[in-house]
Amino acid sequence: MKRALRIANLALLILFPIAWAAPLLRAGLLPFFDLDAISVLTGIRSLWDTDIFLALTVALLALVAPMAKVIGLALIQHNHASPRLLPALKFLGRLAMADVFLIALYIVLAKGTGVGRVETGWGLYLFTFCVLASFALSHIPARKD
Q1: Secondary structure of 16-77 in the HEC alphabet?
Q2: What is the per-residue pLDDT for 34?
Q3: Across-strand partners of 25?
Q4: CB contact set of 64 (below 8 Å; sequence gap of 6+)
Q5: 125-128 — which CB contacts under 8 Å span 24+ positions?
Q6: With CB atoms counted within 10 Å of each terminal CB, which end of the chain scores lower, N or C?
Q7: Going by CATH, does the domain composed of 2-139 fall within 1.20.140?
């Protein structure tokens, strides 16, 4: 069980960057993006031109918090860090969940305005899966071997 948890957590080190580059949604005629497919990375790049603070906030929530949590959990699982770090990792997980909520909120708002067309992409599901998997992995106690 302990080995499976370690492998699952380390898999997130690969899956998160894929999710960041994958299309979260496809949009047409949105005032904030002149792109057909919007990923976390292209969204941050577009936000950087208009609102640096918002771009930094999204980068923190979408990139830094989830990856720091995965790395921290890996350090604990491999006995390179103290389990006392777990409350901080759970907080990072909440920050990452806030990002999924914000993305969903933006989609609902864009659809509600009637401006253009918005469709969710497969990257939104992958990104949500990564965040939920990371959240679950940090809440599953590893049994002692």
Answers
A1: HHHHHHCCCEEEECCCCCCCCEECHHHHHHHHHHHCHHHHHHHHHHHHHHHHHHHHHHHHHH
A2: 54
A3: 38, 120
A4: none
A5: 126/15, 126/18, 126/19, 126/22, 127/16, 127/19, 127/20, 127/22, 127/24, 127/40, 127/62, 127/100, 127/103, 128/100
A6: C
A7: yes
Element of type H or E holding 131 = helix 122-139
Beta carbons of 92 and 66 less than 8 angstroms apart: yes
Domain ranges of the chain: 2-139
- Tokens 């370690």 belong to 6
C-alpha 24/C-alpha 5 separation (Å) is 27
DSSP 83: G
Which structure tokens are listed for 128?
Answer: 């949500």
pLDDT digits (tens, 9 = 90+) for 55-82: 888 888 888 988 999 999 999 989 999 9
Question: Could you tell me the pTM of the whole model?
Answer: 0.78
Residue 109 has pLDDT above 80, yes or no: no
Whether 35 has a pLDDT exceeding 60, the answer reads no
